[in-house]
Amino acid sequence: MHPLNYEIKTEITTVFKDILNNDSVFTKYADSHIREQIMHRAKDRIFREYGLNNLQNILAAPDVVLNDKNQQAIMYCKRFESRYVAVVVGKNSRYIYTIQPIPLNFSLDRYIIIYEGK
Prior knowledge:
By secondary structure, this protein is α+β, with helices and mostly antiparallel strands. It is about 25% helix and about 40% strand.
């Protein structure tokens, strides 16, 4: 059993390592939530599909890592086409909540840049 499993009420499907070798937990619920968003949000579909298919790569080698001050989450971002694709991970829980596109010119009022790649 994964050490974070006691906090999570659904089955853990995968544990990914991020750029600092921290565990990020992906669950059945998160998988179904993201797939539902892919089906119902046509304009963002390509970005969310890219994120779902590249979770490990985005977490292990992000272009930018952001602290979302509003949501208390860490966002691991990879540039894809005209936006960043962000894997949103709980700051304390290390639980992967969702995948979402964010603009390349994101607001510095909401986000703090933690890491920026070359």
